[in-house]
Amino acid sequence: MEKSEKDFGLCPVCKSGRIIKMNRDYVCTNRLKPVDTNSSCRFSLPLRSHGVDISDVMVRQLIQTGRTNYVSMHDQKGFPYQGCFEIEEGKGYTIRSEKRSINAICPDCGGNIIITRFGYACENSTVGIFEAGISPFTIGKRQLSVDDLRDADDLEIQKKYHEYATIMRQHNVSGRENAFDKLVNLFLAKIVDETQHADNLQFYWRGAAHDDYYNLQDRLQLMYSRGMKEFLGEEVTYIDYKTIADSFYLFKNDTDATKEKILDYFQQLKFYTNNDFSFLDVHNQILFRQNAEILKKVVRMLQDMRLRTDKPNQFLGDLFEGFLDQGVKQSEGQFFTPMPIVRFIISSLPLESINDSKQVPRVIDYACGAGHFLNEYADQVKTVVTKSGKEAKPYYCEIYGVEKEYRLSKVAKVSAFMYGQDEINIVYQDALRPHPELKEGSFSVLIANPPYSVKGFLEMLSEEERASFKLSQYISDINANNSIEVFFIERAAQLLVPGGVAGIILPSSVLSNGNIYTRAREIILQEFDVVAIVEFGSGTFGKTGTNTVTLFLRKKNDKVRMSEHYRHRVQTWCRGDFSKDGVFADAHLLDDYCKMQGIERGVYTSLFETSPQEDIWAHELFKAYRNKYANDTEAKRIAKKKINKKYTAEQKLEEIEAHILKSIRSIEMEKLYYYLLAKSNPLPTLIVKSPTDKGEVKRFLGYEWSSRKGDEGIKYLNTSVQGEDEVLTRKGLDSIQTPLFNPKDLDDTSHINTLVRSYYLGEPIPVSEKLSSYCSTIRMEDMIDFKRTEFDMGMSMIKSQEVVIKSKYPLPILDEILHIKIGGTPSRKESSYFQGDNLWVSVSEMNGGIISDTKEKITEKAIKESNVKLIPKGTTLISFKLSIGKTAIAGADLYTNRRVNHQVQNYYIFL
Description:
Blueprint: E1 3-10, E2 18-22, E3 25-28, E4 44-46, E5 48-49, E6 52-53, H1 56-65, E7 71-74, E8 80-88, E9 92-97, E10 100-105, E11 112-116, E12 119-122, H2 154-170, H3 176-196, H4 213-232, H5 241-246, H6 256-271, H7 285-302, H8 314-327, H9 339-347, H10 351-354, E13 363-365, H11 372-386, H12 393-396, E14 399-403, H13 406-418, E15 425-428, E16 443-448, H14 463-467, H15 484-495, E17 496-507, H16 516-527, E18 528-536, E19 548-555, H17 562-574, H18 581-584, H19 587-597, H20 601-605, H21 620-629, H22 633-639, H23 649-679, E20 685-688, H24 694-701, E21 703-706, E22 713-719, E23 726-729, H25 752-760, E24 775-778, H26 780-783, H27 814-817, E25 820-822, E26 838-841, E27 850-851, E28 856-858, H28 860-864, E29 876-879, E30 887-890, E31 895-896, E32 900-903
Helix pairs in contact: 2-7, 2-8, 3-4, 3-8, 3-13, 4-7, 9-11, 15-16, 17-23, 21-23, 22-23
């Protein structure tokens, strides 16, 4: 080996050799002699030791004074401390760590600040010295157990939420979604700690005198990896220092320098990069320390709070809700369901009758998000089954949540562990896809708040998966379609057993929109009994302004599918075959339909004969039908066909007449079919409508949302003792005041949840005067308008009442006497368009009179190159946009802008 020319002095160990510098270390010259000689020496000091690069100056100081100055070192685990190299007489060198007091006072407790090998610290520990769990003769250092933890109350939860927000602001943590992910990881680590280290908790900042950032993060990583493996079945790589150090046991010679270097690299890879607790982007030691400071604060925020409880804690639910609201972007139509709504929906279901069966019912939330519905159901079903002496865990085993977003699926599982509901199953996948554990027709209960308006969701399904939905045949463009909510309706029909119940939150538009939504309502009428519909206003879901309805459904429990039976009966009647009326005892249904339409049965059934009775065309609906289909696209196509020897004018009229009859028969068969299905709803549907006044909405829901800084989140409506004034507090669900349910007694018959439940049980409770402003009942056949020429099965939550107008004047149908057109505006970019002679009316000129001249006039070119339409003299003009209601009459042939409707044959409506 080559050696340096430098001589650093007499060896302090053997007192005879000289210290020289080699390639890897500083050694005694006697070390180079054979070991069996009397003068051999083992002194060796690596060029790098304990994370310190040894300099020539340090070596000379060590030899001359017996010790070096204190420097920053790292122990075998890579944790930093202040230490020095010191000669140990006759043996070599050793390491001495520093702990000394400085002239400083702790700003928190007034204790003395000391310097330890872990850094600066207060001499006072974070716990006392006389409690149980303190190790003997180890003052200030104790073992904490779960008995030291406390349940969080409403005030503390509020403080925790704002403390977390403050920490994030103080350290400029802008990535809220990432921060929420790390918070969930900490929750999981803490649950593992409370479960596996009940007598010696590790999720704790022990104080700077006994802890450091490296040890803290190492403990958290170990607990997190165990939690991911044991609770979520996922491997998370965790390697400790001992594993690395032990890998050198086969190296017998000159291992110190290599080992130190490898451990140093390991430390950098383990701590100086992003990991499961990186609130900040970490890629060096400085950023590690900045992130560790945040981590320490969040750990201290949570460390004294008990997370694992035996029932859902609404305060923890609210805390999670606040964190979710701030930490998860509610995109793709997601919005999280507040706990009062969750409790209302689940307590409205007939859980006792469902759980009476010997077989444990299967339950699913196919868009479970953070798991609120699952946790609340588990808690309520526990109350139900324990009354009969049953264990709750077998029922937990049959609860399934499905979530396609990984972060939320993890949150749902963490929530289950937090509430002692470990057996709840979370399936991480798209709920519209098949899964071995989600067999169709196997679930008795479905509760969900599925996403809505997600563009391109069908692209994520295979062609075979899309084909499993009837609705797919009505989708022309899978890329553009965003109506995911209707597919969740069909998915509910697939998953539920006959007689199974569902509570599904959906956008209100599901009841009224056309196209694919019409097909969704077909599925509802074919597959379900509609037990109740509860409308919630825009303030229900915080920042989300979407109006929603909750559909309380029961899968039709038919031995023979009534949807198929009624389809067959309608086809039979329309063929003029009434021979089976006595067999099925259903002739009264056809009579009821004819009565509803105000037409005699014989006249109506003649529609399906070769030549319908003339009386049918005197009926207003059938007159409107004839007018509609005589002027539709197909009729116009036929009318344009040329007359010749092979195709006469008479044949053309016959073809148009055949088209009209075919169209009317088709829509009437559909109407009659869905009338029968609506009529089969066993009870009138219970309708619950939220008030519209802001104050009334708050009283209806029992809560409101606050966005005021320092007071964010959900606030429950409670009743104060003094004067019974309404006050908004955070006392939680146990004291909430709402007509939806009684938090003290979910069986209280004076609240809406028990009213809904009674309709499920077929024993409806009469609507009390107290609830009459919210609740009413409507027969399903009265919710659907069967009297228009268009039929889309729209469901109205307001019962339609036919108004009879008595007048000496004729009462024509507007559709028969009006032809509505919309105007147009030539491009303003072409100023030459407005330099012509053709009258062009703007809204500002409409003042209820006759318009014979206009301020602006357009050219023939403007007419040709825009969508303006010529309006004949005498036409009524009505504005229909921001200036809606302004009217006028065209005193000459003219054109109008696009904000104006033109209504021909105005004699009847403009006097």
